[in-house]
Amino acid sequence: xxxxxxxxxxxxxxxxxxxxxxxxxxxxxxxxxxxxxxxxxxxxxxxxxxxxxxxxxxxxxxxxxxxxxxxxxxxxxxxxxxxxxxxxxxxxxxxxxxxxxxxxxxxxxxxxxxxxxxxxxxxxxxxxxxxxxxxxxxxxxxxxxxxxxxxxxxxxxxxxxxxxxxxxxxxxxxxxxxxxxxxxxxxxxxxxxxxxxxxxxxxxxxxxxxxxxx
Length: 214
Known about the structure:
Blueprint: H1 9-17, E1 31-34, E2 37-40, H2 79-91, H3 95-108, H4 114-132, H5 135-149, H6 161-175
Antiparallel strand pairs: 1-2
């Protein structure tokens, strides 16, 4: 990995593993025009963070619009707390917010656990894309996340890795556009080569813990 001056290893790793998501779910520090003055949004601790509201799938809304509360950044949780909070958000149809929980675990946890949390974050973003109607990006991220966690031992973290791999591969096959050589046309497809309609994020939410695996 080649680092540019001033770019942290975590930020570089994030860009490397989320190449299709630049400008979509990355932390945006865009300036805002206010009476001709370019000001930068910051959170309560002074860190640059866009204050634009977002909907339940993480899509930016206009300033002043009602939105869904963002996840706080940099929260340190135990593995059990991470899984429980992410599952709550997934069940509520908010996989974008669940990915932020996994991202916190990836950045704050031990190095040996990073591949698991990173892969789970990719799965959550894949579901986010599928729910937004971006079936190409959704299928790609679901498969990438599945490949990233396949073979890892999720037991110590309360994660059903084999079940999640099966879920991700199956969902990717259903949402991928026809004509890509892996997903034939069938019931529920648009029939125009663009894959399926946006999925219901809550209905398609995976079970993270082994005792809840589908």
